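Re: duplicated header lines in exported C-alpha cells

Our pipeline writes sequence and C-alpha cells for each protein into one text file. With two proteins the header for the second block appears twice in some exports. Here is an export where it did not happen, for reference. First protein block:
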Amino acid sequence: MSADGEADTGFTDEEGIPFVGAGPGDPDLLTVAGRKLVEDADLVVHAGSLVNSELLEEFCADAEQVNSVGKDLEELIPLMTDAYESGRTVVRLHSGDPAIYGAALEQMDALAEAGVPSYLVPGVTSAFAASATLRTQLTLNEVSNHVVFTRPQGRTLSAEEDHISDFVGFGDTTVCIYLGTHAVSETMDRLLDEGHDPDTPVAVVYHASWPDEDVIEGTIETIGEKVEDAGYRASALVIIGEAVNGSNYERSFLYGDWARGGDAPNDEPDTETQEPDNE
C-alpha cells in the first residue's frame, strides 16, 4: 500500500514500454506479469532464438513480432517509439532476466531521450533453471555461502577483468558463468594452470528448461573435453563449485533444533528473532 492508503500499481499497470524477462526457455517460466503484458501487446520486439518460439506462439500470437537480432539502437528505438506514440501497446521481450548480461538499460535510456517511458519486469535467469535441473541449491550451508554471476574473458571482457579464478579460489562460492560455452576448455585450462583443485565439481547445463536441455557433469579437469565432445558452443550455463553435487552440506538453523535431529518444538519458532542461514 502507498502512503495515502491506495493500492500500489503492479508491473502490468505501469506506464511505458515494459522490458520483460522471458525466462530461461520453458514458456511456463514466464512470470504471470510477463504473460499478461505480452498477451495484451500489439508489438513484441523479442531477442530472436534466445526466446523459445513456443512462448511466442502461445502468448504472442496476436501481436506483431519483430526479431531484434541484427538491429542496432538506431533502428530499434524509432521502431518502438513510433509504435508507442501511435497508441500501440509495445513490449520489449528479453531472454532470462533483463538485469543479467542484457542491454536493456541502454535501450531504456535511448527511449527516455525520445520521450518514451519504460520499465523493467523481472524474469527467471538461467542460473536458477540450471540449479533446478541439477536438483541443488546455489547456496548450501557450510558448502557455498556466496553466488557469483560472471563471464569469461573475450571480446567484451579483457583478461585483466576476468576474475573467475579469484571467485573459484574463495572456496565457499558457487560460480555461474554466462556467455562462456565456447570457452569452457580455455577457462578450465586457466584454472588448472593457476593451481585450482582439478576435482572441483563443474556442471554445464545446455538450454536449461528447454525441451532439448542437456546436462554435462564433470570437474575442472574433465569438463572441457566433455563439452567439446558434445559440440556445444553457445546457450549453456556453467556452474563451478561444491554445490553442484548438492552434498556434504550442514543442516541450516532455519527450522531450529528439531530439523537438526533434536526434540520437536512445543511452540512455533520465533521468526522475529530467528536468523535463517538461507532462504
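Second protein block, exported in the same file:
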Amino acid sequence: MREEGHEYNITSLQRGLRVLQLLGSAGRGLPASEIAKQSGLPVSTVHRFLVNLEAGGFISKDDLNNYHLGVACVSLGQAAREQLDIRKVSLPRLEHLHRSTRETVHLTVRHKLTAVYIDKLDSPEPLRIHSRIGASVPLYCTAVGKVMLAYLEGAEQEALINQIEFSRFTKNTVGSIQELQTQLAKVKKEGFAYDLEEHEPHIRCVAAPIWDHTGAVNASLSVTGPAVRMSTTRLREIAALVREAGQKISQELGFNPASVRSAVNVRPSSTRARKVRSPQHISRARALAN
C-alpha cells in the first residue's frame, strides 16, 4: 500500500503474522526453536513475538512448552466466516446437495493460485473424504479450482496460468498449459468441472462456478467422494445438481446474466507448454496450499 509516496510495510507485524500462519498450518503444537527454524527468524525475536501473542490470547503454551493457536484466533476465525455473506446465501443450497448426494459438499473461494475451503458438510457415509475449512488446494488440478480458472477474463486467466508450476500429484494430474486450457474450454462449455483423481488418488469431485453481482467467478461449490462411489454415470448426475445449485446461489448474490457481459472465451495461449515438474517440486506446490 502506498500513500503520498510512502510504502506501508510493517516488518514486525508481518513477522508476527507469519508466526501465526506457521502455527495454523502445522496441525500440532510447535516449540519456540522449531518456530524460529521454520520462520527463519532469530530465536530472540521469536520469543518476543510469542510473549506478546500469548498475552493477547492469540496463542497458548502447553505443559511441554509447545505453542498452539489461542482462543482469540478462534473468535476471529468465526467472525470472519460469519462476515462472508456467500456462506449464508449458499448454505441452504449446500444442505440440499448434501441431502441429495450424501457426499461431502464444499464451498470455496479463490486466493491467488489456490482454492480455499470456507464451508463444508461432511458425508454421513462411513467411507468419506477428509478435508478442513481453511485448507487450500491448487487451482489447476482440482474441480473447484478449474471452474474458477475457466471463467476468468482472457488476459487475467493467461497471466495466472503462466504462474503455475505443474507438479504431478497423481498419474492423472494435468501436465502443461495446453492441456489445462483444453480442459478449461470444456469446463466453460459444460458449466462444471471434474477432478478425476487428479489431486488425490481415489478421490473424485465435480464442481460448478458461483457468479457474484458483477459477473465475476471467484467462488465455487463441489461434491466430493471416494472413487468407488463416484462412477462416471453418477458424476454426470451430480454435475447437473451442482450446476443448478451454483446458478441459484449466483442469482441470490445478485447475478443477472442478462445485464452482465458474457465472460471471454478461453483462448489458446502462444506460451510454450511447461511440462510436469519432478517430485521434488511437489513440496513447493503444497506450500501454496498452506
